[in-house]
Amino acid sequence: MSMNTQGRPTGIGSGGAGGNGSSMLPNEPLLFEIGDREHSGVDLPEVEIVTDRLGGFDRASALDLPGLTEPEAMRHYVRLSRLNHSIDSGMYPLGSCTMKHNPRLNEKMARLPGFADIHPLQPVSTVQGALQLMEELSHWLMTLTGTAAVALSPKAGAHGELCGMMAIKAAHEARGQAHRTVVLVPESAHGTNPATAAFLGYSVKPIPARADGTVDASAVVAALSPDVAAIMLTNPNTCGLFEPQIREIAAAVHEAGAYFYCDGANFNAIMGVVRPGDLGIDAMHINLHKTFSTPHGGGGPGAGPVVLSEALAPFAPVPFVRKAGDGLELVEHPQETALGRITAFHGQMGMYVRALTYMLSHGGDGLAQAARDAVLNANYIRARLADVFSLPFPDYPAMHEVLFDDSFLEGSGVSTLDFAKALIDEGFHPMTMYFPLVVHGAMLIEPTESESRQTLDHFCDVMLDLARSAKAGDKERFTAAPTRAPRRRLDETRAARTPRLTWSPPEDLPQAAE
């Protein structure tokens, strides 16, 4: 590692590899500004349409798309990719998001014709290999979690969360317990937890977090009543801590006739080491992108399978795979009391292939090692930064992510947002900011198991250097940041409230001489 003229560390993560060099790139115009509507990038013969097959739904106006040549289109998207930060170009320390390396082997397997080219409406007899893969993936997920059933069809973590809570609701209704209309949700939960419960018509009752960042079993017991349907608890929790009283909480919830929904977003911290079913959970979604390295972000395609306990297994949604004679079949019609269908087809086959490839290439012991390495990396960052950064919950070691608050910045005039923006200038994507809400000015960092010690050391060196600058009064380094990114600091609040979602050609304004 070298030092720049201001005495700040540079090296891995700085310059082009991490994103700093992109400030030297020219602005990339929109496709509408590159092409025009009068020309096409492809020479096509004039076609005389003799039969209208559109039943009156043909366009009444021009398509209004810019015409570009193939090189123009390709170069546009390559230039955009150079402006973007990605896990392939640098560390992505987002807490609670697990931006880990996506092995290229996974991509190669997902592109095999027998998986990439199939259609959900094909005859089942022609997709036996795909069904076998789904059955194998289901076996791994149930084995790793110690559960009795799995629904593969949910398309994302929040969708899986909805599926699990719908199974709980169906189970209560089947038992004549429809009066259970309350769901307990700790204050440190992911925001989707109370949203999912409310979407299903439940009333949400918050459970406060203790001073050490965990949930108190006695507080759960005090909140239980005959109206409680379930508790939705994340473990490891959003503060990056393992809930030490999770078994006592599960026992109390079951004793009250309710179910235990576990948010499995952070399963990557314990996979192969702890089976959630042994802790007493009844339902848990698993984010394949977080735990099993399938692509993350961009709105999909995603997959959020849900594992279910023996008590909830009869309420799993269709379709699901089961043996039928010498082959396999997709069960398409639910039992009378079952949940039914939550999506049109079986889910995202490409994600299934990638996830199972990751599992098979690691093996059970390798998955456990990946979880341990994720925890080790988070605690390494914790140990290196703890003397300068402030730990809101110092009593427990971190799991897969480490949480700091902003009290170390007190009096500096630098906020968590300022600090994160300055990190962009050093070539790193910022950590998660202001989440979880139970910690003021939160900085949540998750290195994952993918990063080497060299990368972690450079990240820590940069973090410490930024902290020194903030405390030394170098406020401009933060309030002006980022200065070396493709875009300077944006008004994010205004952008969110008044977004410009369409492009219009600039008006031809009259010149002064006219």
Offer a few descriptive terms.
514 residues, alpha/beta, Aspartate Aminotransferase, domain 1, seven-stranded mixed beta sheet, 16 helices, 34% helix, globular, pyridoxal phosphate, pyridoxal phosphate binding, GDC-P_C, GDC_P
List the helices and strands and how they pair.
Blueprint: E1 2-3, E2 9-10, H1 31-34, H2 70-83, H3 104-110, H4 113-116, H5 128-145, E3 149-151, H6 157-174, E4 182-186, H7 192-199, E5 203-207, H8 217-223, E6 228-234, H9 246-255, E7 259-263, H10 276-279, E8 283-285, H11 288-291, E9 306-308, E10 320-324, E11 327-331, H12 349-385, E12 402-404, H13 416-425, E13 432-433, E14 443-445, H14 453-471, H15 476-479, H16 492-497
Parallel strand pairs: 4-5, 4-6, 6-7, 7-8
Antiparallel strand pairs: 1-2, 3-9, 8-9, 10-11, 12-14, 13-14
Q: Specify the number of helices.
A: 16
Overall pLDDT: 90
| Backbone CA Rg | 26 Å
Name the CATH superfamily assignment of the domain at 118-347. Type I PLP-dependent aspartate aminotransferase-like (Major domain)
**How much beta, percentage-wise?**
5-15%
Helix content: 25-40%
Shape: globular
**Architecture per CATH nomenclature, i.e. the level-2 architecture of the domain at 118-347:** 3-Layer(aba) Sandwich
Using DSSP, what is the number of strands? 14
User: Which strand order spans the largest sheet, edge to edge or round the barrel?
Assistant: 3-9-8-7-6-4-5
CATH fold name of the domain at 118-347: Aspartate Aminotransferase, domain 2
Task: Quote the distance from N terminus to C terminus.
Answer: 59 Å
Q: What order do the helices and strands follow? A: EEHHHHHEHEHEHEHEHEHEEEHEHEEHHH
Query: What top-tier CATH class of the domain at 118-347 fits best?
Result: Alpha Beta
**Which regions contain 5 or more consecutive residues with pLDDT less than 50?**
1-23
Major sheet characteristics? 7 strands, mixed
Task: Label the structural class.
Answer: alpha/beta
